[in-house]
Amino acid sequence: MRTKFLMIVFAVSSFLVSCKKEKEETVIENKNVNKFFSVELEAAASKADNFALYFSEDNTVDFKGTNAVWSGIKGGNQFETLTFALSEERIPTHIRLDFGLKADQDSVVVKNVKVSYYGNDYQFKGSDFFQYFIQDKQFSTKIDVAKGTITFLKKDGTYKTPYYYPTQATIDNIKKITTAK
Known about the structure:
By secondary structure, the chain is an alpha+beta fold. It has 2 domains: about 1-30; about 35-180. The protein is built from 3 helices and 10 strands. The chain has helices at about 1-30, 130, 170-180; strands at about 35-45, 50-55, 70-75, 80-85, 95-100, 105-115, 120-125, 140-145, 150-155, 165. Strands 1, 4, 6, 7, 8 and 9 form a 6-stranded antiparallel sheet that branches. Strands 3-2-5-10 form a 4-stranded antiparallel sheet, with helices on one face.
């Protein structure tokens, strides 16, 4: 009789402990989910500079200065991760990336881009950049597929801030991650 009682107590205790562990793990998983739209850009620049993410929320490419998030890059050709995080209530439909303001910038190399919202994300290598953003021939670029990078260069000895509008693939992916449950 006593053996049965001890086995029942042990079984109930094991059940309660395992439920408690499961509940704790769920809380930990939810802590890491960003509750806002963000873009992480892994890039390197020859000189310190500021990059921007412009966004619109009205299904247009009408990008205004009030809808921009800036992030600084240290320079020195070392890869850094820049994060452009919008406030929780802002959900863009379109984004534009601007790579620096400095006229004396030599080059900017993009290795990876990750777009995320509430744990949903998509990402791509720098070498796939023009699948997600419209190529503009006024800016000089070099793609290195082996390294998975795109380099924005001076054109005719002058560096002009390269900025890129979204392709339909970017628009569709933003919609997908911001409406997924």
